[in-house]
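RETRY 2/3 - previous attempt timed out on the joint model. Re-submitting the same 566-residue input unchanged.
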Amino acid sequence: MSKENQTKTGMSRRKFLVSVGSLALGAVGVSALAGCTQTEKPSAKTAGDAATVTYPWPYKKLDVETVRKKGHQGYYEGACCYGVFNAIISELGKEVGAPYTTFPTQMFKYGEGGVAGWSTLCGAVNGAAAAICLVAGDAWEDLVNELMAWYENNPFPSDISNQYAREKAFLVKEMKSDKTLPQSVAKSTLCHVSVTEWCKKSGYKSFSKERSERCGRLTGDVAAFTVDMLNRHFDKAFTPVAKISNEVQSCRSCHDKGGTIENTRGKMNCMPCHDDPHKKPKS
Amino acid sequence: MSKENQTKTGMSRRKFLVSVGSLALGAVGVSALAGCTQTEKPSAKTAGDAATVTYPWPYKKLDVETVRKKGHQGYYEGACCYGVFNAIISELGKEVGAPYTTFPTQMFKYGEGGVAGWSTLCGAVNGAAAAICLVAGDAWEDLVNELMAWYENNPFPSDISNQYAREKAFLVKEMKSDKTLPQSVAKSTLCHVSVTEWCKKSGYKSFSKERSERCGRLTGDVAAFTVDMLNRHFDKAFTPVAKISNEVQSCRSCHDKGGTIENTRGKMNCMPCHDDPHKKPKS
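RETRY 2/3 succeeded.
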């Protein structure tokens, strides 16, 4: 990662701390503003077919900005989950060849709108985690933890996605708005909370063309973050910094493993549903 | 579906209505108690490699109980999401052959515990939805809606999964408990809520071996329901009955598409987080 990007990482972390109040977050949100330099080139455009390539599948560094744009485009083809997954896998298809070129990426359409519009897990995160696990093998958990923590605390859509749309240097034919869209911190990896927070912050309705376009830019941003992280991981330059916030840790000290109550599990931000940790949950 | 199973379906529906109070649910939970009869046999044990088989991938009817057992076993190999996905795909590998035999099912380990233990979307549901979308093409949304509604309202673990464990007729080497485990209705497709409801109902702790075994049996149950539904779909005998409950519909009438507020989206049960629809959400 360049020095410029390291500085931006530090800025993002400070921004997170302001955005989420007292949460002491270690999660770093960084979408590299410059595309990565491809230092590794595959020797051939195929790693073999799916029958001969063993899990995890081979990874080659990808260009972060190409994937961001492709993720945004993919949102208009098959929504958020497909958008992220297809952007990464189809670019790996160009760099590595088979077996990526034969992966039925359409199967990830199901993740749309938090799975068929149920608004559970954000589809962009779901598709990104699947792509990570396909290539990272045993390292998937650290990388997915990082992704989840970053998503909860990163302002979406990113400045660069807003900039692309404004400058029209990058055109998605179906793009529903070329405005600079307001940013909000999702506070959660759940589609329901992520969309609501953005609607509250922006004043736009949840089925407005602007909200849809916000999710398209977010799809690009999640794809870009994922690839930046994978590039660093395969360069042995990734150090996980995500950690559970003090507030969530406090909840977990009683309710999670080893706590006196031990009646639940999880690492997600408790606050959007349980704003007072000493008040009995509503359900 | 046999007459016996239709009766059991009716019983399950009544049980749901009691369990979830005033929710007027159309979602039907039925895991066929008898394995389906395989009326279709593939003519050859390969449909072709991934390069030649187009999306959606070809489906052959599977034995529901074989998949239930394999899902349970798979939980102890790679947790809930992998457990469901691998059970279905590996059985399709036996019936259809390639390209299923070359699918890197390990990539679905990421869904464990609601994605890397974050307790968002139940991994069993995530893996099931992915398998559905791989084989069902454009029909995926109706089938996934049915799955989601069923999961929210079905008592887990099923009687049959409890029976297997009790009788030891089906042995999972790593099985952490052979007790008949208490059942609870998840009320949500979120791992966090699903686990908490079971802990409240059963009195077991969230990291107890019994809770882990409950999720193993649930993994089998979700795999079995999915295959039963896919079998019926490909037999042209599936009619979607899932509908959004009156209570959720009431919330959506203001907050979802076309409502006066229109500040969110979703189909999931609102009650576990917002028990009073006229009270401002906590966050």
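Chain A touches chain B through 72 residues (CB under 8 Å). Closing ticket.
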